[in-house]
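Q: Here's a chain of 460 amino acids. Please give me its 3D structure as tokens.
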Amino acid sequence: MFKRILIANRGEIAVRVFRACREMDIEPVAVYSQADREALHVQLAERAYCIGPARSADSYLNMDAILTVARAAGCDAIHPGYGFLSENADFADACQTAGIAFIGPSGDVIRAMGNKAAARALMRKAGVPVVPGSDGAVDTAQQAQAIADAIGYPVLIKAAAGGGGRGMRRVYEPAQLKALFEEARGEALACFGDGEMYLEKLILRPRHIEFQIMADREGHVIQLGERDCSIQRRNQKLLEESPSRALTPALREEMGKAAVAAARAAGYENAGTVEFVVDQEGHFYFIEMNTRIQVEHPVTELTTGLDLVREQIRVAAGLPLSVSQEEVFFRGHAMECRINAEDPAHGFRPSPGKVGFLHLPGGFGVRVDTGLYPGCELPAYYDSLMAKIIVYAPTRLEAIRRMRRSLEELIVEGPAANTDLLHQILYHPDFVRGNYNTGFLEEHLDTLLTWSGSGEEVEQ
């Protein structure tokens, strides 16, 4: 087992990995930018090293600085968390070259699955359903136009190296395509340094369902159930839950098998997520694979009882999975709300700043993952996620009620937050009934921002 792990991240995920290391009797080593000098993960660590100025490019994306610290501190592994370098194949390769374990899949696998167009081709070959679209990269708007004419509108233009909704545009009619193709490619180049694009049929009002998988180097692959991530704004998730009301037992089993087949086709190792869309007729399609731990991984931890970060570390150390598929049991219902420093009433404008008074919810079945503390500073340079509230209960309705109560207890003075919006979603009749899709927030946002929920229950 590893003796010392460098955590190449910040915020709540750095704290999360820090705790797992301590419980495994592994020394965690923190890194931080100048803007994060007083961050919680830095204060918790016995060893913490500054790796550069505030900008991500100069600090958390600075591979040379991170590897230099890892070698100097005697680290035998690096946990990248999510975001930053977590899906950077070159960084995974550099860790291997330096003789430091990368807690994640190999660079080759990250590279193969990170290119969404190549991943689609691999999944098609493995028999995993994919959304109709281009067979590979689309080089020009003229090519995109021909494919769109063949599969029919609406279509979705996507960056092959994309993620988080960037480099993605919806096209509803031919006259829009050329301008939106160039716009999406420009954004992809700016965000990822890669302008390769591909095209898919746009599945209208789907459910976004992802399956958590774990795989070890001995070839064991298991799936740990689904998470419904359909409550989104601008293609970024706000609320996740498991199990999904959209899946029948038969569909759940079929999708779980497809997720395992996807992981095997990729030669996968460590934690990953296979993401699907499910249309209104119950057909599912592969859209991408995330080669890292997800923000919403606690949902799965609460429904399975497995510590996914601990499992990641074990697998990276060469140990087999601690459970087989037959030993995975699902219980109850779990739900996560992402508390972001943003103002929904003003276009989800980021709201960095200093946190004053802080009160976090607690009680039976409530977990809070955060890097917040009274007086901490939320820098403007990074993602707006402040905290994750995760609840567990025997039934979905009890989980909804527990989450409502938890949001009511949360107090964060200073930065604006999306707490009220999340609270309103939890009272919306369609959400309570489980009758929602990825268009829910777009359709109901104006109402949610002005509506005062009555608190009356509706039938599920």
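Q: Can you summarize the key feature?
A: The chain is about 35% helix and 25% strand.
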